């Protein structure tokens, strides 16, 4: 865009003139567009469960009024939809907390072994319900990195939860940690955490878009599994704030591996 400013004759020594200044507004335009998309996505995501809730309220008031069995079934669906909205709002809050600045001041040293132990304990029940076996591999003992304990807990909760959700019924999810004496990209000592499943895998063409907000390979399947489409976007931002790296590898039909590398200093 060019903004054209006519110079007043008295300022240009009576000769008059034109000053042309070019400004690059592409970045600004992209930001405005992204914000618009984001608001549209959020509205859509919230409206879906809301519409369902309103429909069921109406049915409860009319058709299902004198049918206790139908009433119970509808109330369960309403509970599920309300829980989905609750998760969505929770994820939106998490995202807005970590999205602002790309670097943060670490709040302390976090023991990744302890984080993984507690996340795996929390998710044990969902793993059992999906007949998935959670397996911890690699080095044990204390392994500390500078960071925020709650945020790192969220990273591994999201990754292991996904591995359980999309890892295939009856499968295995492996969580391995290893120490890297010298990580070439981070130029120093680092921890590598790998979450591997033997599930459906992801089409390589979809991999680059996976960490976008609200991106899902299969929207229906994600919704059915209670997903919000924000999990990996949150992971990406938290890892970046810890000066870490994330890598996704996947073979359709065989499974996926999510690798997180966190600097030790
Ligand atoms: P969601 O809440 O939908 O799970 P995420 O941001 O966590 O959102 O993940 C985005 C999409 O990436 C998912 O909808 C799913 O299609 C795909 N995905 C994530 N993890 C895996 C995995 N371990 N195996 C296969 N697909 C996965």
TrEMBL record:
The keyword Cell inner membrane does not apply. Keywords: Kinase, Membrane, Phosphoprotein, Transferase, Two-component regulatory system. It is an enzyme of class 2 (transferase). One of its GO terms (molecular function) is kinase activity. Its EC number is 2.7.13.3. It comes from the Bacteria. It catalyses: ATP + protein L-histidine = ADP + protein N-phospho-L-histidine. The keyword Kinase applies. Residues 41-265 form the Histidine kinase domain. This is histidine kinase. The chain holds residues 86 to 350 of 350 of the full protein.
